[in-house]
Design a protein that fits this description.
Blueprint (H helix, E strand, L loop, with lengths): L1 H5 L2 H22 L6 H31 L12 H19 L3 H4 L7 H36 L9 H28 L3 E9 L9 E6 L10 H14 L3 E5 L7 H8 L11 E4 L2 H5 L3 H10 L2 E3 L3 E6 L13 E6 L4 H4 L9 H4 L9 E4 L3 H10 L5 E4 L10 H8 L5 E6 L2 E5 L17 E9 L2
Parallel strand pairs: 1-12, 2-3, 3-4, 4-5, 7-8, 8-9, 9-11
Antiparallel strand pairs: 2-12, 6-7, 10-11
Protein name: TMPPE metallophosphoesterase
InterPro entries: Calcineurin-like_PHP, Metallo-depent_PP-like, Metallophosphoesterase_sf
GO molecular function: hydrolase activity
Length: about 450
């Protein structure tokens, strides 16, 4: 016990994060089958919030030391302005930490103001932490270089030297946060992409597929935005509309009224949906499937449909005037051991032969890569998940961790992958270095 007390606060936070992670694994293995489903959902999401907050404590300690503790011995530390500054930093960090708990308590038809404020602070927290670390690294590099050259560093007094770094980080954070908030508040851009498809029937040349992804109905995205997305899609008059996962961040019963506008979507040949990882975080996939079907949105649960230009599924013996639209469950269903779910490509593509054009819906680009390794004859895979990073510096991590980042990729002569940057955003109502998008894919017959 005495040894634990001697540990730094950052080390204690890291130990807490590890403990929560172990508890998540243990509860998933030993409690999932014994707890009532609603209780299990609540426990799992609470553990996720605690795990995120444990990791954030490490960064919060660093921010506090950089912006408050290092200045507490200066002559200005007793001033009223400095005391107000301390209060502002405490409120800022408290709001950032509370953001993950809004998933449990503050999800409704429209976002609560508190949720928007909390997630905005979380976005600013990420930006500030990055720039504080960057500035510290630059300062250390400069001092090391000066030491190797035998020079004396800096003529600024110690107080000014301690104040410059946090002041610069706060200023940059404020500017980028405002820019990110304004960018995310805009309607998604409508992007038109033409994709050449081999084996595309002549009658389906010019088929229009509208792609939505990563709407994340929850604490900061509600019914008003969903209505806007539906209006924008209907203006495009799609033949097919597809939603490639991460539609929601809470249970179907909580978001029933928020998702209701989907029932107004007008797609001549149907609207289809596949799960993303966040659907499994809600632990409510079966209820979401039922709700979406009531809104005329068909989930593709490791299955496919044959789509013809006439609008009716082709019958046995009829001309091969159709394409195969398939969908797989998100790969994290396997990691979470979600009963009855998991990516099953063979099942999803049952009946989809290389002689027919095949379009596959798979939420994560990693799933798209795995699918092409097994079935390189797939013509087009539609994915999301990356958000194109959503905010800086997460863009860099998203780029490095995914085989496809955002936009159209030609994997082979007859194979393409398109990754949507997302139609809304996850939690943080900001976008830096990316723009929300509704994608209009025009399939063109290739020779």
């Amino acid at each position: 016990m005495a040894t634990f007390r001697q540990l730094s606060l950052g080390t204690k936070a890291a130990l807490a994060a590890g403990t929560v992670f172990v508890s998540m694994v243990a509860s998933r293995s030993y409690l999932a089958g014994s707890l009532e489903l609603r209780a299990w959902r609540w426990l799992f999401r609470l553990q996720l919030a605690l795990f995120a907050n444990s990791l954030m404590l490490i960064g919060s300690v660093y921010i506090w030391r950089s912006t408050v503790s290092n200045l507490s011995h200066s002559p200005a530390a007793e001033s009223t302005c400095f005391q107000l500054w301390k209060v502002a930093v405490v409120v800022f960090l408290a709001l950032a930490h509370s953001s993950f708990f809004t998933m449990l308590f503050l999800v409704a038809e429209e976002p609560y103001l508190f949720s928007l404020a909390a997630y905005s602070c979380l976005g600013a927290y990420i930006i500030m932490l990055f720039f504080l670390c960057t500035l510290s690294g630059v300062e250390l590099a400069y001092q090391l270089l000066a030491w190797r050259r035998g020079k004396v560093t800096g003529s600024l007094d110690q107080t000014r030297k301690l104040a410059v770094r946090p002041a610069l980080a706060v200023a940059v954070t404020a500017v980028l946060s405002v820019a990110g908030l304004l960018n995310a508040a805009q309607p998604p851009a409508v992007k038109t992409v033409q994709v050449p498809i081999h084996q595309l029937p002549p009658s389906m040349d010019g088929l229009k597929i509208v792609l939505l992804s990563d709407i994340h109905l929850g604490p900061t995205v509600g019914r008003t935005k969903m209505e806007m997305f539906v209006r924008m899609v209907n203006v495009l008059q799609p033949d097919v509309t597809v939603i490639v996962g991460d539609l929601c961040d809470s249970e179907a019963s909580v978001l029933r009224t928020a998702v209701a506008p989907l029932g107004q979507l007008r797609s001549r040949l149907g609207t289809y949906f596949v799960t993303g990882n966040h659907e499994y975080y809600t632990s409510d996939v079966s209820n979401w499937f039922a709700l979406l079907e009531s809104l005329n949105v068909r989930p593709l649960h490791n299955e496919n449909v044959k789509i013809s230009a006439k609008g009716a599924p082709p019958r046995d013996g009829e001309a091969d005037d159709w394409i195969c639209l398939a969908g797989v469950d998100d790969i994290e269903a396997d990691i979470l051991r979600y009963y009855g779910h998991g990516m099953d490509l063979a099942k999803a593509l049952g009946g989809c032969s290389p002689d027919h054009a095949t379009v596959l819906l798979a939420h994560q680009p990693l799933a798209a890569k795995r699918a092409l390794q097994s079935r390189p004859d797939i013509n087009l895979i539609l994915s999301g998940h990356t958000h194109a990073g959503q905010i800086f510096p997460l863009n860099v991590a998203a780029y490095l961790l995914n085989p496809f980042f955002a936009g159209l990729y030609q994997v082979a002569q007859t194979t393409f992958v398109y990754v949507s940057p997302g139609t809304a955003y996850y939690g943080i109502p900001m976008r830096l270095g990316s723009r929300a998008e509704i994608t209009q894919l025009i399939l063109q017959r290739a020779p």
